[in-house]
Design goal:
The protein has about 130 residues and is mainly β. It has one helix and eight strands, in the order H-E-E-E-E-E-E-E-E. The longest helix has 17 residues. The relative contact order is 0.26.
């Protein structure tokens, strides 16, 4: 009874080490963008650039924001292998103060990626 258990214990680490780890299909340049002092009612975008590291074209199925004060735009076309794209995010800068918002990007291949924007909106100048 000990021999089969001993064999499993000896070979399990080798099996686990031999498994290739999959690279994510989408590789973002940054998953968080921080802006310290954003002018009130600014129209600047938070732009997340990414590359398709996969072997086939990939399509962004959905982009979901954590609240209605944040909107995001995704590429409408598939991104070819080794191609690149952008997710553009805007925040309602009429909301004064600090904020942290998340954006979930779901591709047709691979796992979803969570992006984050952080910042501080300055009060309106009098």
């Amino acid at each position: 009874m000990r021999n089969p258990l001993l064999i499993v214990l000896l070979f399990a680490p080798l099996f686990l080490l031999s498994q290739k780890t999959k690279k994510p299909a989408l590789k973002f340049d940054a998953v968080e963008i921080i802006r310290e002092d954003i002018p009130y009612d600014s129209k600047d975008l938070f732009v997340f650039s990414f590359k398709n590291n996969g072997k086939t074209p990939i399509r962004i199925e959905s982009v979901q924001t954590s609240c209605g004060c944040t909107t995001a735009e995704k590429p409408s076309d598939a991104i070819g292998k080794k191609g690149s794209g952008q997710i553009s995010v805007s925040y309602d800068t009429k909301r004064v103060g600090e904020f942290v918002k998340s954006i979930t990007v779901t591709p047709n291949l691979g796992d979803p990626v969570v992006l984050t924007i952080r910042g501080n909106v300055l009060p309106e100048k009098q």
